[in-house]
Design brief:
- The chain is α/β, with parallel strands linked by helices and about 325 residues long.
- Among the domains are: about 150 residues, Rossmann fold (3-Layer(aba) Sandwich), CATH 3.40.50; about 80 residues, Crystal structure of tRNA isopentenylpyrophosphate transferase (bh2366) domain (Helix Hairpins, Orthogonal Bundle), CATH 1.10.287.
- Helices cover about 55% and strands about 10% of the residues.
- It contains 14 helices and 6 strands.
- Helix 3 crosses helix 4.
- The longest helix is centred in the last third of the chain and has 24 residues.
- It is globular, with a radius of gyration of 22 Å.
Length: about 325
């Protein structure tokens, strides 16, 4: 039976902004348990490079969705949404608050908005559309989309061929506008979630920690140096040895060191794998990790800046976890 309103809170921000430490303090103040929103913290054994909370921190505040699968196993966004719902329902049933902490924007978006899969791809239709785009231009396809699905056409940039063709494909296969199917899907998603959580209404409150670019870059560089100093290379080497012993998957022919498709893309891990496989020097691995992490932080902020309902906490260089937590508590109250 549904009753009342529940609040789910989210603390996010780019990598190295200080959200993990602030999240623990905030959770203690709220009487909350933390659900990780980090796509790489789900992997067992990947501890140094993902900056997982320490055992002591996990004793202070229970954490969920950390160490869920082995690095050579896949973990989808859909599975995350289901696992996070289960974790949140369990926390709420104990009368505790829920706080999501992490920087994976796709996890945040899909947890809040739901997942629209739509019909399977029609490869022949897609080839036809691509041929038309070459002959007639993308404007013609965008105009066709406007005729059958004005809302999607308004939302999708005229040069975004992938999304335009997908929206046309959905209409071609179903006879319904993708925007309308998405709306119905969101309604069904929210109804199911309210029933699962036993609530008439779910309030999503979210804020992102933001730092000035120079300060964030400094923090990223320091974090990467700490990772390598704490034994990231040894951790990757040991994980690769375990992969060879226990995984049914095989490494690509030219790679002695490998972790699996998803885990090998993690910041720091991919660069160390290149070092262990003899492609780059250790110094290059360190510098590339710093560069790639800065680039990733920029992409993260694009996600957060465009997310409806997101509020921002601008932190100065001397403002650390206690100040960030206090300011977040006021915004998320």
């Amino acid at each position: 039976m549904c009753s009342g309103e529940i609040t789910l809170r989210f603390l996010t921000g780019p990598t190295a902004c200080g959200k993990s430490e602030a999240g623990i303090l905030l959770a203690e103040e709220l009487g909350a348990e933390i659900i990780s929103m980090d796509s790489m913290a789900v992997y067992r054994g990947m501890n140094v490079g993902t900056a997982k909370p320490s055992p002591e921190q996990r004793k202070r505040v229970p954490h969920h969705l950390i160490d869920v699968v082995d690095p050579w196993q896949s973990y989808s966004v859909a599975r995350y949404v289901g696992d996070a719902e289960d974790a949140a329902a369990g926390i709420l049933s104990q009368g505790r608050q829920v706080l999501f902490v992490g920087g994976t924007g796709l996890y945040l978006k899909r947890f809040v908005e739901g997942i629209f899969s739509g019909p399977k791809a029609d490869m022949a239709f897609r080839r036809e559309c691509r041929e038309r785009a070459i002959c007639e231009g993308m404007d013609a396809l965008h105009e066709e989309l406007r005729q059958v699905d004005a809302r999607s056409a308004e939302r999708i940039h005229p040069n975004d061929a992938l999304r335009i063709i997908r929206a046309l494909e959905v209409y071609h296969l179903t006879g319904s506008a993708m925007s309308e199917l998405q709306r119905k899907g969101r309604d069904e998603f929210e109804n199911r979630r309210r029933e699962k959580f036993g609530a008439e209404k779910i309030d999503y409150r979210m804020c992102a920690l933001v730092r000035e670019r120079t300060d964030l870059n400094r923090r990223i560089d320091e974090r990467v140096d700490r990772m390598f100093g704490a034994g990231l290379v040894d951790e990757v080497r040991e994980l690769c040895d375990t992969f060879r012993e226990h995984s049914a998957s095989r490494s690509p022919a030219d790679e002695r060191y490998y972790l699996g498709r998803q885990a090998s893309q993690a910041l720091g891990y991919g660069e160390v794998l290149n070092y262990l496989n003899g492609r780059i020097s250790l110094e290059q691995a360190v510098e590339q990790t710093k560069l790639h992490t800065r680039q990733f932080a920029t992409k993260q902020m694009t996600w957060f800046r465009n997310f409806p309902g997101m509020r921002y906490i601008e932190l100065n260089a001397d403002e650390e976890a206690d100040i960030a937590s206090a300011r977040a508590a006021r915004l998320l109250a």
